[in-house]
Amino acid sequence: MVDPKIVREKMDVIQKSLEKRGVEFDLANLIKIDNERRALIQETEKLKKEKNELSEEIARLKKKGMPSDEQIEHLRELGQIIDEREQRLKIVEKNWEDMLLLIPNIPHSSVPAGKTDHDNQVVMVWGNKPAFDFMPLAHWELGEKLDILDFKRAAKITGSRFTLYKSSGALMERALINFMLDLHTRNHGYTEVLPPFMVNRETMTGTGQLPKFEDELFKINDTDYFLIPTAEVPVTNIHSNEILKEEELPLKYVSYTPCFRKEAGAHGKDTRGLTRQHQFNKVELVKFAHPEHSYEELESLLLDAEDILKTLKIHYRVSLLCTGDLGFSASKTYDIEVWLPGQNIYREISSCSNFESFQARRAKIRYRTHTGKTEFVHTLNGSGLAVGRTVMAIMENYQTKDGSIIIPEVLRPYMGGISIISR
RNA sequence: GGAGGGAUGGCUGAGUGGCCGAAAGCGGCGGUCUUGAAAACCGUUGGGCGUUUACGCGCCCCGUGGGUUCGAAUCCUACUCCCUCCGCCA
Fold first, then answer.
1. Do residue A88 and residue A122 come from a single domain?
2. CA A268 to CA A122: how far, in whole Å?
3. Which element (helix H / strand E) includes A50?
4. Are A155 and A244 found together in one domain?
5. A283, A292, A351, A344: which is closest to A321 by C-alpha?
């Protein structure tokens, strides 16, 4: 949620932000509702003050003599008027909040203007495309030939966009999860957490998935629980409604979870292989940072995520997302895009964002400053990394002419020492 | 799933209809004392909203929502969560 004070006092800032993002929103109406809301608050509070004073008067009189019937009758009437005002206020307030929750975050000043992902800026490139003296295959071809990925049977079991991993494929997925968790906990100072994979509506609202994106989520029938689309949701909400100590910031968590997404609107896109699934595994990095240091923390978060690909020795580049491609809750986002020689494309494998106080305000995550005040923390997160897409990247980058896959050195201890997957 | 018990400030814990936003203790912070520290003593110590240049003033919050009452932390009600016992179960 954006700061309501900014909406009220610096409407042009919000207006510009909406334009940069290419989002339509009736700001004038929101301001109108806010004014109505505040007028109602002032009116009811004035009445309440009057009521409180009279009430005390009656309490005093009761001790000595009896209060008059007229006074009690007057109070009763006052109470009725207040009830009526409060009911109106409640409606207006709900309306106001509903609208506020639909305003996207304000992009950071360093975010380039742009409309689509074509306007994103490549800010760094690591390594080189591997040279092959044969036509490299896409991972789905390799996976089926090696009998380690079975898309047909997954479709039989559930439906499209699911995968059955087998033998070394399943082993590699599991190995990567452990490798990533170990690297981030041992080398980068993150605390491992294993959260619930279902969350309630309030939690989903805290990180910004609700109310706007309900149609992208899987909801459990007959409950108000949702399957998480990313560990960001449960992990960021670990500290919802809490006041943290300034000196314990930044808090850093790493979490493995499966992720469930409907991917509405992506029909017909990336239908083959592991790229776009309704269920996939991800190791996620989450930080709670001091507002003064959150952009430094974003840079180090990005490096922590990059470290996985560096250690696996896979070529990638980093893009800075433009205003039009930026997610609803984010102020600034870097995408790590891994090279996939079998498909001849770069593909997003991690997205690292600073949400500033946007999620913290929704989820009420605060810290106490040295002066004793409470302020909202800044929340950040990034994939470290998407596991299925990492399997995909290893398969395509480490393939050999005969269709085998060499296991990256660092992964071998996690895979029982094997160095190659072949038929 | 069945039967009971409970939810109060950072923590422990009083409070069963009217200066209770809440006693007391612990913890935290500031101070006195001390070369320094401890102990002791004194003071201070929740959050949100509205208004205000500011000092301040006002309103709301005792798990959450509704209700009774002139007045609710206190009474009623629904829900949520926690604890104990029984059943079931990985």
1. no
2. 27
3. helix A27-63
4. yes
5. A351
- State, as a whole number of angstroms, the distance between the CA of A216 and the C1' of B5: 42
Token readout for A72 is 């009690």
A59 touches strand B (CB under 7 A): yes
Residue A34 to residue A412: CA distance in whole angstroms:
60
Q: What is the CATH number of the domain that holds A67?
A: 1.10.287.40
Q: Is A276 a catalytic residue?
A: yes
Same-domain check for residues A96 and A126: no
Is there contact between A65 and strand B, defined as CB under 7 Å from any strand atom?
Answer: no
This complex has an ipTM of 0.87
Q: Which helix (H) or strand (E) holds A38?
A: helix A27-63
Tens-place pLDDT, residues A114-132: 999 999 999 999 999 999 9
Provide the domain count of chain A: 2
The catalytic residue among A21, A85, A261, A347 is A261
CA of A242 to C1' of B20 (A): 25
Short-list A121, A113, A120, A118, CA closest to A19: A113
For tokens 């020492």, name the residue.
A417
What's the pLDDT at A309?
98
Write the single-letter amino acid at A92: V
Tens digits of residue pLDDT in A266-287: 667 888 999 999 999 999 999 9
Residue nearest to nucleotide B51 (CA to C1'): A42
Nucleotide B40 C1' to residue A369 CA (A): 31
Using N-to-C axis directions, what is the helix angle for A167-186 and A294-312, rounded to 10°?
140
- Is the Cβ–Cβ distance between A318 and A124 less than 8 Å? yes
Containing structural domain, residue A406: 117-421
Nucleotide at minimal C1' distance from the A71 CA: B70
**What global pTM score does this model have?**
0.93
The bases of strand B with some atom under 7 A from any protein CB are 10, 18-19, 47-51, 58-60, 66, 70-71
Q: Is the CB of A84 under 7 A from strand B?
A: no
Structure tokens given for A221: 């029938």
A134 with A225, same domain: the answer is: yes
Decide if A186 is catalytic. no
Q: Is the confidence at residue A291, as pLDDT, over 70?
A: yes
Catalytic residue, chosen from A263, A348, A368, A375, is: A348
CA of A245 to C1' of B27 (A): 15
Task: Output the CA–CA distances (angstroms, integers) from residue A415 to A217, A270, A389, in the order listed.
Answer: 34, 29, 18
